[in-house]
Amino acid sequence: MPLLRRVARVAAAGAVAGGAAGAVQHRQQGRWARQEEDQRAAQEQQQTATAPPPPEENSMEKLKELGELHESGVLTDTEFADAKAKILNA
């Protein structure tokens, strides 16, 4: 009989240890998932912060007009570059 009790204790201890190991693994996987989500959010935030807003339709029309004026010789290269920068940064 003592041998049967010892086997039962070992089996119970193994089950408890296995359950604890599973809980630790589950917790660690949750941490990794949260870290990945945080990294994705930081990357998205960085991309949106560094990307300039797309130019509006009105800006595109102004750029076309500037290009035509530059090609026709009304605007110098410097004047064209300055005006274009103002439109794109507005």
Structural summary, described in words:
This protein has about 90 residues and is mainly α. It folds into 2 domains: about 50 residues; about 40 residues. It has 3 helices and no strands. The longest helix is centred in the first third of the chain and has 49 residues. The protein starts with a helix and ends with a helix.
Number of discrete helical segments: 3
Shape: rod-shaped
Q: Please tally the β strands and state the result.
A: 0
Distance from N terminus to C terminus (CA atoms, Å) equals 88 Å
Domains (count):
2
Query: What series of H and E elements makes up the topology?
Result: HHH
Summing up helix and strand content along with how strands pair, one would put the structural category as: mainly alpha
Rg from C-alpha positions? 33 Å
Question: Main β-sheet, in a few words?
Answer: none
The proportion of strand residues reads under 5%
In short:
The protein has 90 residues and is mainly α.
Fold topology:
Layout lengths: L1 H49 L6 H16 L4 H13 L1
Keywords:
rod-shaped; about 85% helix; single chain; about 90 residues; mainly alpha; 2 domains
